[in-house]
Amino acid sequence: xxxxxxxxxxxxxxxxxxxxxxxxxxxxxxxxxxxxxxxxxxxxxxxxxxxxxxxxxxxxxxxxxxxxxxxxxxxxxxxxxxxxxxxxxxxxxxxxxxxxxxxxxxxxxxxxxxxxxxxxxxxxxxxxxxxxxxxxxxxxxxxxxxxxxxxxxxxxxxxxxxxxxxxxxxxxxxxxxxxxxxxxxxxxxxxxxxxxxxxxxxxxxxxxxxxxxxxxxxxxxxxxxxxxxxxxxxxxxxxxxxxxxxxxxxxxxxxxxxxxxxxxxxxxxxxxxxxxxxxxxxxxxxxxxxxxxxxxxxxxxxxxxxxxxxxxxxxxxxxxxxxxxxxxxxxxxxxxxxxxxxxxxxxxxxxxxxxxxxxxxxxxxxxxxxxxx
Length: 373
Description:
By secondary structure, the protein is mainly α. The protein has a single domain (about 40-65, about 75-370), classed as Orthogonal Bundle (ABC transporter involved in vitamin B12 uptake, BtuC), CATH 1.10.3470. Helices cover about 70% and strands about 0% of the residues. It is built from 14 helices and no strands. It has helices at about 25-35, 40-65, 75-85, 90-120, 135-150, 160-180, 185-205, 215-220, 230-255, 260-265, 270-290, 300-310, 315-340, 350-370. Helix 4 crosses helix 12 (about 300-310). The N and C termini lie far apart (about 75 Å).
C-alpha cells in the first residue's frame, strides 16, 4: 500500500536578493502612502469627522458674524439687508462690513494654515511656522515702513514687497539653522529674528502721526476690524495662486520626509521644491500681514490639529485640511473678539496667541519627553 504524498507547501518568493528599483513611479506613491501612519479607511473617516466639525464651526462663526453686533439682526433681517438699497444703513453693515470680515478671516486663516503645513513638512520640523522663522516679522516691517514713510507702493504691490522682506528673513534663518542641523537652533534663531523685527516695527510706527497710534496698535495685534471688500480683493489673488501651488507641492513633501538623498534618487528636485515651498509660504503670509497685521500661531497649530485629529502625516491631506482648520480657527477667534467682550473688541491675533502659546509649550514638552532636540 502506497503512502500518500504530502502536498508541497506554497512557494514563497525570495525577495531578499531582489533589486529595488528606485525610479519607478509606483515607488513614490507606495512610499508616500506608507507615511500616513494609518489605514486609508480610518483616515477617511477621521477626515470626514474633522470636515464635519469645521463645517459646524464655520456655520456658527458666520452666523455670529452676521447676526451679532450693533444692530443685532435675525436671519430675516440679514436677508432683507442684502435686498435693501446700497445706501441703506443695515445693508452697509451686513454687506460692506460684516460679510467681508468673515470672508477675509477664512482666506487669511486658510493661507496661514497652508503656510504652516508647508514649512513644517519641507523643513521636517514640527515647530516651523512663519512667526517662528521671522517671515511674519519681515513682512510686517515692510508694510509698516511703507505706511509710515509714505513710500510710493500701491495696495496691490504691497504684498509683493512684503513677500520679498519675508523671503529675505526666512532664507537667512533657514540657512543658519541648516548649518547646525538642529530644529531647536532653527526655532531659536527665528524667535530672535522675530523679536528684533518686532522692535524695528515698533520703532518705525513711532515715527508716524500721533493720531494713527491706535490704528498702528491694532495692526500690531493682528486685527480684522473695520476691514472691507478692498482687503478681500488684496488677498484674493495671492490666495488663488499660492494655495493651489502649496497643495500641488505637498505631494512632493511626502517623499522629502524620507531624506534628501532618497528623495533625490526618486527624481525629486529637493532644492527647487524647498525654494518653491518657501516662496508660496512667504506669499501667503505676506498677503495676510498686508491686510490684517501679523497673526500668530494659526500657522503653527492648524497642521498639528489636523495630524492629531486624522492620525495621518500624509502631507497632501494635512495641507488641504490645514486650510480648512486655519480658516475656521481665525474666524472663531475673530468672532470671540467681537462677542466675548462686547461692546469692546479684542483683536483676533490676541485670541490666537492665547490659544497657540500653550499649544507650543505642549509641543516642546512632548519633544523633550521623546528625547528629540
